[in-house]
Structures are given as C-alpha cells and as structure tokens.
Amino acid sequence: MSTETETTGAEVGTPPPAGWEEARSRVYAVGLSAALPAVARPLADTDGHTLAEPLTTRTDLPAFPTSSVDGWAVRGAGPWRVAGRVLAGQTASPLDEDGSTVEIATGAMVPAGTTAILRIEESTRTADGRVAGTPRSQPEWREPAEEAHLGEELVPAGTPVDPAVIGLAASCGHDTLRVRRPPRAALLVFGDELLTSGPPGAGRVRDALGPSVPGWLRRYGCQVRGGDVVGPVADTLPAHVAALRGALANADLVCTTGGTMHGPVDHLHPTLEALGADYVVNTVAVRPGFPMLLARLVDGDGRVRFVAGLPGNPQSAVVALVSLVAPLLAGLTGRPMPVLPQVTLAEPVPGRGDHTHLALARWDRVAGTAHPVRHVGSAMLRGLAGADGFAVIRPGTSGAAGDRVPLVPLPLMPGERS
Ligand SMILES: Nc1nc2c(c(=O)[nH]1)N[C@H]1C(S)=C(S)[C@@H](COP(=O)(O)OP(=O)(O)OC[C@H]3O[C@@H](n4cnc5c(N)ncnc54)[C@H](O)[C@@H]3O)O[C@H]1N2
Ligand code: MOO
C-alpha cells in the first residue's frame, strides 16, 4: 500500500496523523476529482441529486405579459364595450379600439393594446351592458422577464436539488436536469464482541453503529439500501477481505466500523492492503476519533471507490463521519466544501494538546451560542443524543467562554432536536 507522507522514525512506514483541517481539505479535493458522472434525469426524479451545471432559464420569465387578477383588460377610457374573453392558456388577440375590453382570467396572456386591468369585483355594468369602474393605479399584470431573462443563470452548479429548485426548473421550461446522483454507500460492522439484540453484559456490547450509521449517511444524502449494511463481520482477515470486496461491488463509499487500530483482531489495514487500496488520510490529529482513515481504490477501468474507516468507539465513529465523510460526499457530488458556522462558546472547553478537540455541544441558533454537553466519552452516545454538533477547539488552544469557534453540525433534519 502506498503512503504519501514521510515516516516519523518511531514506527517505520507509518505517516504522522494529518491535521484535522488539512485532512478535510485533502478528502474534499480527492472526492471532487472523483466526482460522480453528470447525467440527464427527468425533472421529477432529481430530488436529492446535485446540479451538475447551472440552472438557466429557457425563456423570459414570465414568458408573456400575464394577468395577475380576474377582471377586464381595457383599452382607453371607459365605459368599455365587451369584445370577448381570454382565459389562461389561450393566445390573446389585440385590443384594437379605445373603449373596448375583454374579460381576462388570472394567468391569461394580456392582449396587446391593453392600457389597464380592472378587477372583476371593482367593476360594474352600465344599463347598455358596458363595463365601468376605475382601474387601480399599479399594474395588475406581470411583465415578461420580470423574474428572469432568457438564458439567465438562476442557480449555480453544485446546488443540491430540492423541491424549490425542481419547481423553478419546471417553470422555466426544463424537462430534464443534468445532475450527479446521490452517492451509494454501504456499511460493514466489525467486532466479534457485538450483540445485535438484547442488553449488553458478560463482555459483550450492543452494536450501536450498524443501526445508526445508515441514518447519518442518508442524512448526508447517500443512498443506503437494507442489503448494504453487513455485520458483525467475523474477526478474521479472510472474512474482512471477502466482506469489503462484496460491499465495494455496488458502492461508491464503504464505511467500516472498528478495527482501525492495530490490536490482535484489528484487520482493517491488512484488508485494505490486500485489496490494493491507497490512503488519502491515515489517522487524524483530532480527539476523539484519532484512528479514522480514508482509503481509495481504483479499478482497472478507472472507477474510483472509497473506504472510510470509522473507529469502533461509537462517538469516535460519528466524529469520523462529520470530519471525513461529509467533505468526501460534498466532493463526490460536486457540491461546495461545507462551510462551518461560527459560534460563541457559552462555557469553557478544554483543548487536547496538539490535537484538534471536537467537543459535543448543543447549538442555540438564535443566540449563536454553543453549550458543551455532558457524557461525552468516546465510548458514549448519551451526549451525542442531545447535541447538535461539535465545537472545534484548535490544536494548542483551549476554549474560554465567549470565544468564537467553528462548529461542525450533525446532519440533523428539521424537527430533530429542538
Ligand atoms: N494501544 C492503543 N489502543 C488504542 C488506542 C491507541 O492509541 N493505542 N486508541 C484508542 C482509540 S482512540 C480508539 S477510537 C479505538 C479505536 O479502535 P478500533 O477502531 O480498532 O475499534 P475496536 O477496537 O474494534 O473497538 C473499540 C471500542 O469500540 C467498541 N465498538 C466497536 N464497534 C462497536 C459498535 N459497532 N457498537 C458499539 N461499540 C463498538 C468496542 O467494543 C471497543 O470497546 O482504539 C483505542 N485503542
Ligand atoms: O480518539 Mo478515540 O477515537 O479517543 O476514542
């Protein structure tokens, strides 16, 4: 296996851990260079995809002068003689004579020659059947190109496609969009000590990651199918190699949990070596989560897939997701590198020496403050379940109340937490 940095001397062949920010940018750049192919998809099938090119409008928006009320399109001074009717969806004949009007529906094309539109509820009829009333002074129709000009860029490439983008694309004439699909992810859980049901005890713990990591991956926009979650995989090298080979068949990204260190039954590194992977990042100077890694495999036909090694301690596994997997997925889908919000620490947070400290915190978005939570050991999940993200305490510093620091958010959905 190739390693891209020099050795420390302490352990020949082992590169020093990457700095946390350096690891994130390296992973993002490698993801972007392996971005998923751009494909044309029918509009209704693009939710959750990413725009591979800017969204531009195929017409002026609106494409024609459009009535914004039900009423009378009039020409000149009233009362007006009724010359016909124009409904939404029809092309309107011009109003040729002063003193004439056509009944007009909301959304209908405004006839050429119209000087005003009179709302239906503000109109009356004269004894001889003509229309009378005083049109409001402000225009009651939308001018062509009021919203956008033909060819104008409305949304940049790299934007996640959501219902608002889909609606906009439809309204300006698109049948398909060029998009990158959601990455497909798989999960392998390593550890013979793991139970998949019932309470822990007698040296065994419940697998907390098999049931939870797919939900985080989906919240980051991945597709994870039921059959893509495998484990616990037996703690032998052949079982690991077979499981990883199988998972890589259909996935852009395989996450593994546990086995990242060099204990007697930690097989991840030899497995990666057996499959010919190379490291993008191998350990990161962050606590918790230090042994996290990202490796890359390139097929004979040039297809690139990634393996994210999440440490076995459950909170550390989530730290690896927010630290490495999130920027990788942004790169793979051609989205921008996630920008971290700045928050004000509400309480002091200790540093972790030369390492970045990711400290679980509740984020008060209104006040812009981060409040450290309790129960934050790397083997614990209690603090995580009440947190919104991790406050970032830079190497060689500690956080004092009032300090401004970045926060890495958990990919929670609206309505989750407060
Ligand atoms: N000699 C050293 N030992 C360890 C070091 C070190 O620097 N030197 N680092 C520690 C750190 S930091 C972490 S994090 C862990 C990472 O270990 P692995 O990724 O190899 O994970 P395991 O050894 O398989 O498991 C660690 C821990 O987590 C529990 N675990 C594993 N999978 C799950 C799961 N799916 N659900 C719940 N709990 C899980 C496992 O039972 C262990 O308790 O290494 C330290 N050791
Ligand atoms: O860094 Mo380990 O990931 O402390 O638990």
Which features would summarize this protein structure in a list?
418 residues, alpha/beta, Molybdenum Cofactor Biosythetic Enzyme, Chain A, Molybdopterin biosynthesis moea protein, domain 2, Molybdopterin biosynthesis moeA protein, domain 3, 6-stranded mixed beta sheet, 5-stranded mixed β-barrel, 6 helices, 27 strands, disordered N terminus, binds ligand LQZAQKY5, binds molybdate ion, metal ion binding, transferase, molybdenum cofactor biosynthesis
What's a quick, concise take on this entry?
By secondary structure, the chain is α/β, with parallel strands linked by helices.
The CA-CA distance between the termini, in Å, is 46 Å
Reported by name, the CATH topology of the largest domain is: Molybdenum Cofactor Biosythetic Enzyme, Chain A
User: How are the strands of the largest sheet arranged?
Assistant: 17-14-18-22-21-19
Estimated radius of gyration: 30 Å
Count of the domains? 4
Biggest sheet details: 6 strands, mixed
Protein name: Molybdopterin molybdenumtransferase
InterPro entries: MoaB/Mog-like_dom_sf, MoaB/Mog_dom, MoeA-like, MoeA_C_domain_IV, MoeA_C_domain_IV_sf, MoeA_linker/N, MoeA_linker/N_sf
Keywords: Magnesium, Metal-binding, Molybdenum, Molybdenum cofactor biosynthesis, Transferase
Domain MoaB/Mog: 186-331
Question: How are the secondary structure elements laid out?
Answer:
Blueprint: H1 20-33, E1 38-42, E2 50-51, E3 55-56, E4 66-67, E5 71-74, E6 81-86, E7 100-104, E8 116-119, E9 124-125, E10 131-132, E11 141-142, E12 153-155, H2 163-171, E13 176-180, E14 185-190, E15 194-195, E16 205-206, H3 213-219, E17 229-233, H4 237-248, E18 253-257, H5 268-274, E19 278-282, E20 286-287, E21 293-298, E22 304-310, H6 314-332, E23 342-345, E24 356-364, E25 369-372, E26 389-393, E27 404-409
Parallel strand pairs: 6-7, 14-17, 14-18, 15-16, 18-22, 20-24, 23-25
Antiparallel strand pairs: 1-13, 2-13, 3-12, 4-11, 5-7, 5-8, 9-10, 19-21, 21-22, 23-27, 24-25, 24-26, 26-27
Helix pairs in contact: 1-6, 4-5
The structure holds ligand LQZAQKY5 and molybdate ion (MOO).
